[in-house]
Amino acid sequence: MFGNPLCGSVQSLTLASSCTILRALRPVTKSLATRSSKLAPASAVKQLALAYKSPYPHDHLAPPLRRKLVSPSSRANYCIHHTSSRLANVDSIAKMTSTTAADQADARLGSEVTPVHYDLTIRTDLKDLTFTGTAEITVTVHKPVPHLTLHAASPLVPEAAILGSSQLKTESARPAEHIRVDEKKERVQITFAGGEIQKGEHKIGLRWNATLDDSMLGYYKSSFPKKDGKGKAYYALTQFEPCQARRAFPAFDEPAQKATYSISLISRTGTVSLANTDVESTKHLGAGGAFPRTDLLGDQFFQSETEKEVVGKTVKTEGKTETVVDKVEQDDADFKDDWEITRFTPTPKVSTYLVAWANGEFEHIESSFTSPLTGKTIPLRVYAMWDHIKQGQLALETTAKILPIYEEIFDIAYPLPKLDTLVASDFDAGAMENWGLITGRTSLYLWDPKKSGLQAKKGIVSTQSHEVAHQWFGNVVTMEWWDNLWLNESFATLMGEVIIPDRIEPSWRVHSAFITEHLARALSLDALRSSHPVEMPCPNEETIQQIFDALTYSKGASCLKMLSNFVGEEKFLKGVSIYLKKHLYGNARTQDLMAGISEASGQDVGKMMDNWLSKTGFPLITVEETEKGLKVRQNRFFATADAT
């Protein structure tokens, strides 16, 4: 995901310049709290200073979004979610850095059952602002289990479930006897007739309903003005990162639980349906828009309802939005009872948070790029509502420019048959890297050459470069768990704001801008006592939500840039290519990336980088002259020294 992280306390604004480095390295005599055994090595400090010596020391490109939204007089220690308007309190993050094995285990689904393939069918009703869905999930059961456990969360309401074998025979299907919904843990536990589920491959059939709320999470609604000026109409889109796919369909909602997907969308005729991959077929259904029947999901399944038990009820405010339909704006004449089903080609193996779809009266502009590796021509499109579509041209042109560059850097062809970008007016993140269907906020994607300035142009280029970087780094290879989130976001930040813009617009002097925008921010935040490591434990969903902060993005990207300068950019990117190829369509951890860069550079960089990534703060080197010579000591640097 991408946005402009707006970060805490007044220091993060006043220190946003390269002079922060000098302040961090200047000699002081006051003793600070944290001893050198807990810090990055002194040898790395010199590398840090050299790595960030700006060729343009007076260039300051403060982002307009930060100037606009953060008052210089603000002194609250906060951090705005890098991709969201929600506040992630830095102090609350610091309190979560200790966890137990039991906490970690409780946050994860077991390994007894893993998904192989999802057949998803979603029926969207933009008149009633509701959606219903069915799924056939092929799973591998590794040892006998008494029940199946998946993630599911409000507003999704499970209705029925059934179990069959992967080589399905109708008579072998086992209906669910009981569904236990745990609202607090956001899980459903399904018990089937016939006792234990034996080892082997099975299919789970599921049916559910939900409302399209305006939470900007899961599958939600957004609005746009009608062309005739008489009120507004609605469209619907998804936002699943980090743990919101479970609001749209029951799933094994963890990044390591990758599977392939076949998505089908039922919608009213006259609307456009989008998903991760290209359209395979469109079939007219007529009135009612009924779900297609399958061997497992037959008429009896659609008429049944499984007994449910709800536990762990909690009072929530986020995402609990009442859906109110304005009868004036939602005129019945706007909706024909005429439906169609759009089927999309299967995806590669992908994590749940990268699955995406949308439905609405979208318009689009189109281009393409030719792969330098395969020679294939890949269609590129930008979708938006009628009032915004003309301003999507820069995003489209940027996508066409940067895709061939990424293919050559990674030496891996873009793996999907198309790449769409959907621009939305109501969007929780700045942008989101859904595989094959990038979504983003209008304020970060629309460009009017007559009104928009250079800063807005730079923002669009860096945003789209960031999201396209994820199509490989994050989508082809995904972090194993959220404690390695920095692997995704820090790398995309470095690629999107430095390496790619520098290749297509060298006059922008992006290396200097990176210092003022990211390095200075990282140093400022990391000098606070409430800071946290780049890599930190994520024992539960609350912690996962909060690590999407500026420290993760800016310090992580600064550490990667330091590493790139240390080994050389060419060897750094070669190491990334080695890493991607070795873990293609799988999951990986920090040490896997470091192994790739070590192989490409011939230097063992893992131990050096571990000090920067797994520890809080950065070191201050103090040199004192004594009668016997020089005394050198290392302490953690704080924005304010300890009281004497």
TrEMBL record:
InterPro entries in UniProt: Aminopeptidase_N-like_N, Aminopeptidase_N-like_N_sf, M1_APN-typ, Peptidase_M1_aminopeptidases, Peptidase_M1_dom, Peptidase_M4/M1_CTD_sf
Cofactor(s) for this UniProt protein: Zn(2+)
Statement: the UniProt record of this protein carries the keyword Hydrolase: yes
Superkingdom of this protein's organism: Eukaryota
Keywords from the UniProt entry: Aminopeptidase, Hydrolase, Metal-binding, Metalloprotease, Protease, Zinc
Site positions (Transition state stabilizer): Y553
Cofactor mode of binding and number, as noted: Binds 1 zinc ion per subunit.
Signal peptide boundaries: none
Gene Ontology BP annotations: peptide catabolic process; proteolysis
GO cellular component, one term: extracellular space
The protein, known as: Aminopeptidase 2 mitochondrial
Lineage: Eukaryota, Fungi, Dikarya, Basidiomycota, Pucciniomycotina
Gene giving rise to this polypeptide: APE2_3
